[in-house]
């Protein structure tokens, strides 16, 4: 109706009035993006395909233009000024400000975030590491420097360059730990850094990142010290810290 000649374009003023008067329930983040798209168009027209791409959250040129224009035109203190939020929504807001460097992206993430799927990967890895440690501690009656126990070294999970033909050991060593100090340090960083990263970037990216760090650790030991056994999830933790460092720099 707004494009009777079927050109694929409508005027910015018409589009802006439509955005403010429509009856469809849009979340505030997408409404802001639509307004920013209209304000950022230098030709006085809005393309239908740009509108479709923006609504579907595709990272198109129109999406990036709306992001850039929104940074200039939209207020930046909306999230921090919001009151009456529940504990979980406050945590989501904290994650947005901790992980995302751009104010518009933070608002977008805050309004688009869904509780399903939850960040289960880092929680599952940490819980498994704790269970394995408790099992070996109870079995060996030893809670520190467990690698000095001969039975501990017979575990099928530990990586040793001499056992590199057993390929699963390149990854499974992340479930074994020397003592409470190493386990506690790794578990703390995995939950403090890994969970927020997984909430923003998703389980596939973070699981690949973490496992790549674990694999890098076993491969490094294979070429630097052929006599050393390897236990602990520190390789994955270092990968998470390096990923978070990029957010800190930005």
- What structural class do you assign from the helix and strand content? mainly alpha
CATH class of the largest domain: Mainly Alpha
State the low-pLDDT regions, or none: none
Rg (C-alpha, Å): 25 Å
Instruction: Return the CATH topology of the largest domain.
Output: Rhomboid-like fold
CATH architecture of the largest domain: Up-down Bundle
The main pleated sheet reads as: 2 strands, antiparallel
CATH homologous superfamily name of the largest domain? Rhomboid-like
Cross-sheet strand order for the largest sheet: 1-2
Number of strands: 2
User: How would you describe the shape?
Assistant: elongated
The tally of domains stands at 3
Q: Could you state the order of secondary-structure elements as H and E?
A: EHHEHHHHHHHHHH
Pfam families: Rhomboid (PF01694)
Domain Peptidase S54 rhomboid: 166-248
Keywords: Membrane, Transmembrane, Transmembrane helix
Main location: membrane
Describe this structure in words.
- The protein is mainly α and 250 residues long.
- It has 3 domains: 9-71, no CATH class; 82-115, no CATH class; 120-249, Rhomboid-like fold (Up-down Bundle).
- The chain has 12 helices and 2 strands, in the order E-H-H-E-H-H-H-H-H-H-H-H-H-H.
- The chain has a two-stranded antiparallel ribbon with strand order 1-2.
- Helix 8 packs antiparallel against helix 10.
- The longest helix is centred in the C-terminal third of the chain and has 22 residues, at 180-201.
- The chain is elongated and about 80 Å long.
């Amino acid at each position: 109706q707004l494009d009777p000649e079927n050109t694929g374009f409508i005027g910015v003023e018409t589009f802006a009035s439509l955005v403010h008067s429509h009856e469809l329930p849009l979340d505030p983040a997408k409404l802001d993006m639509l307004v920013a798209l209209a304000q950022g168009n230098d030709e006085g027209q809005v393309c239908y395909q740009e509108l479709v791409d923006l609504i579907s959250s595709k990272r198109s040129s129109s999406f990036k233009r709306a992001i850039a224009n929104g940074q200039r035109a939209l207020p930046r203190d909306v999230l921090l000024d919001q009151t009456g939020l529940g504990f979980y929504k406050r945590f989501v807001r904290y994650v947005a400000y901790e992980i995302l460097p751009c104010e518009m992206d933070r608002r977008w993430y805050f309004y688009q975030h869904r509780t399903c799927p939850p960040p289960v990967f880092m929680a599952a890895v940490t819980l498994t590491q704790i269970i394995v440690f408790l099992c070996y501690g109870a079995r060996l009656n030893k809670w520190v420097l467990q690698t000095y126990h001969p039975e501990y070294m017979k575990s099928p999970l530990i990586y040793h360059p001499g056992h590199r033909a057993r390929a699963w050991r390149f990854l499974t060593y992340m479930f074994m730990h020397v003592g409470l100090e190493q386990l506690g340090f790794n578990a703390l960083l995995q939950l403090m850094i890994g969970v927020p990263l997984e909430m923003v970037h998703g389980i596939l990216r973070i699981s690949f990142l973490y496992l790549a760090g674990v694999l890098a650790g076993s491969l490094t030991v294979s070429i630097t010290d052929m006599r050393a056994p390897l236990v602990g999830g520190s390789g994955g933790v270092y990968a998470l810290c390096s990923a978070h460092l990029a957010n800190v720099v930005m």
